[in-house]
Design goal:
Number of strands of chain A: 17
Number of domains of chain A: 3
Strand order of the largest sheet of chain A: 2-1-3-8-7-6
CATH superfamily of the largest domain in chain A: MoaB/Mog-like domain
Oligomer: homodimer
CATH architecture of the largest domain in chain A: 3-Layer(aba) Sandwich
Distance between the termini of chain A: 56 Å
CATH topology of the largest domain in chain A: Molybdenum Cofactor Biosythetic Enzyme, Chain A
Largest sheet of chain A: 6 strands, mixed
Structural class of chain A: alpha/beta
Strand content of chain A: 25-35%
CATH class of the largest domain in chain A: Alpha Beta
Shape of chain A: elongated
Number of helices of chain A: 15
Chain lengths: ~425, ~425
């Protein structure tokens, strides 16, 4: 079988063209295809319109080896992706009894009534490869034409179905059509900008074709995706791990907070659990962003006890015991107040670690000389207190300043936890 | 001049095809074009590749009256949108001195060094209509071919530039090419589902062609966009207002929290400011989402004093004074605890209103019979206390349960504030 080298993504749904939903599927699929070594040349979104869908499909298949569609697999008359693709490949539709049984079982389990329409979701083009959908009613499917070397994979539109279906079934299916195995691992970096990271590992990045190292940058974070290709999964894993060690041995290593850890909050909660440490937060400008990030992690209640959002000086004193003298002498946006906030939260909530954030998110200043974007992040543990000062550009949005402040607080908590012994 | 009736959106940037960024521009532009009465038929995203960009542009212009591009206006050699569009319309490029001066001033103001490359951003196709960019270095532009009735509007890729440029300059430009005026207003509804809303105002929606009423649904909220077309702005405004009154007179009216207010948190902060009322929060399952939403609003410090995130029973007692007896008798997920949390926050932070949330966000339960998705939202004011109970499906994600809980808390705070007199 010929290799799949190029792909296009074709998203179907009038709600996309109305701007009612953002097309996150195209970004997700692009990332995952890049991981599989497949180059994406174009994204297209069309409405639930058979003529335009047909034209878009033909255009995509005229150049790409693989087309992945999302949407248009639902039960109603205007869901036409399967039928359009079947017509393109001249395949008749037939009832797939296995899919029909699964759809019936799904409805029985969720206690909803199945309509006649839903049977349409079990109609499949002859010769299709079917991916059972454990997350909804519409099975996903693939049609492959070996003569033309064209493959179309059809996925349901809701990301809650598309993402797990792709990861669990479509990615292995695409890999099985290749005689090599690809393994990707992500190095998570915080506190060093993208251009600095690239500068420090320039030689490694340009020298290495396998594994490849690709940087991704988002809201103050850098992620390096290391992808190795080999004949065996074990060998590809080892090649990734060796590359990760090489990168960690550079100056970049000091800024790595984990490999395949998902996010700062995930890494922090995992580390606290592993060391049996507890955490509290004290927030001013971030207004709850830090605690919200931590509690977004399932199981965070094992390590997170709580926090205080103290938006006025009076409340900083009342809830956290920040002294009026410190507030008077240094102002609310100061290293001293950040550290007193963290100390107050640690003592009041009786935790091993507390982090704090105080600063000016803007757009307006606080009437002093302190520029918008000035932020102090504090941390307190039984080993002592510490702070960092951020000077973010006042031209950044309030949203960005708050988010980057919260990320710095999470990172400072990780660093503090790393230095502590297990409880 | 012929009317612009149809549009395609063409986004340029390899980062889109790598999945490194999500294409939010396509959704934004689609919504705004719908407001202007222009139908969007297709979204396309291509990389920084001149041949594929050229093909995509030709395909888009073969059917649509208007093509809006985003991206590819930067200073580097692979930013080629302007050049490709100019070649399509057979227009030579020339230096626009006005744009060059503005770019120079922009660099001087931000204290950065201007490179020779940036001059490229002032090169414009002959006859282009230029939109000054107050948010970045790349001016936006439009090219119009009156004979073919084709217009291409080119916008820079960063949403922080594209969004204000479209709203402030491109929308009026497109409107000026039409002899009628469109005005849209958004009715924000919370607490009634999309199908219930549609059911209550079915007659109004189907009877009315001008203004039109279109529903949009997102995370527990429904928005109705009312769009009126007329010869004068004032008349279109009046038509919108009349329709809004008609809708508010139905049962839907009880669930309307504002018109063109942006979001629950925006409506809440505006209302509190108007009535000179202060607010505090007490959060368990939402972990800071409520306070984070409130403090995301600029100027919220005038009304928001702070909050407590109390993730354990002990901390609920310690910070908010929730009694151990109540916790024992009713459990942490109960109406009684929700109200004691709100009362505690109001008294401790000395505010006019406090809202609270306690519940099970899952995926795991708390060892009792209480199902995941059970949430109590409390509110306390000097006039008394109140609560609502939510029974969200345990099949919903942790993220969804937390978000909908936070939105319900904001809505309950709005209702409480509406009943209070001005301070």
């Amino acid at each position: 079988m010929s290799k799949i080298a190029t792909a296009e993504i074709l998203c179907v749904g009038t709600e996309l063209l109305l701007g009612d939903i953002v097309n996150t599927n195209a970004a997700f699929l692009s990332q995952r295809l890049a991981d599989l070594g497949i180059s994406v040349y174009r994204h297209t979104a069309v409405g639930d319109n058979p003529e335009r869908l047909k034209a878009a499909l033909a255009a995509a298949l005229s150049s790409a080896d693989l087309v992945i569609t999302s949407g248009g697999l639902g039960p109603t008359y205007d869901d036409l992706t399967k039928e359009t693709v079947a017509a393109y490949f001249e395949r008749p539709m037939e009832l797939d009894r296995h899919s029909l049984e699964r759809i019936k079982t799904y409805f029985a389990k969720t206690g909803r009534a199945m309509t006649k329409n839903n049977e349409k979701q079990a109609m499949m083009p002859v010769g299709a490869h079917i991916f059972d959908n454990n997350y909804g009613t519409a099975p996903a499917l693939a049609i492959r034409d070996d003569v033309k070397n064209k493959t179309v994979v059809m996925l349901p539109g809701p990301p809650g179905e598309l993402i797990p279906l792709f990861n669990e079934m479509v990615a292995p299916y695409l890999q099985s059509q290749s005689d090599s195995v690809l393994v990707s691992k992500n190095i998570h970096i915080f506190g060093m900008g993208e251009s600095a990271v690239e500068d420090k590992i320039k030689n490694i990045m340009t020298d290495s074709l396998n594994p490849t190292v690709a940087p991704y940058c988002k809201e103050g974070e850098v992620r390096l995706r290391v992808t190795a290709k080999s004949h065996s999964h074990g060998q590809a894993e080892r090649m990734c791990d060796e590359m990760i060690s090489r990168i960690e041995d550079t100056e970049v290593g000091d800024f790595v907070y984990g490999v395949d850890v998902g996010s700062l909050e995930n890494a922090l909660v995992a580390l606290l659990k592993q060391k049996n440490l507890t955490l509290a937060t004290a927030e001013s400008l971030t207004g709850g962003l830090i605690s919200e990030a931590i509690t977004s992690v399932s199981g965070s209640s094992a390590v997170f006890r709580g926090g205080c959002v103290t938006y006025t000086n009076e409340i900083k004193s009342k809830l956290l015991g920040v002294s009026a003298q410190t507030l008077d002498a240094h102002g609310a946006v100061s290293a001293e107040v950040a550290m007193e906030m963290a100390r107050g939260a640690r003592l009041k909530l009786d935790t091993d670690i507390a982090v704090s954030a105080t600063g000016l998110a803007g757009p307006d200043g606080d009437g002093t000389d302190t520029p918008v974007g000035t932020v102090f992040i504090g941390v307190s543990t039984k080993n002592g207190e510490n702070y960092i000062k951020l000077s973010l550009s006042a031209m950044r949005s309030r949203e960005y300043i708050r988010l980057v402040s919260a990320k710095n607080a999470l990172n400072l908590a990780i660093k503090a936890a790393q230095k502590m012994t297990k409880n």
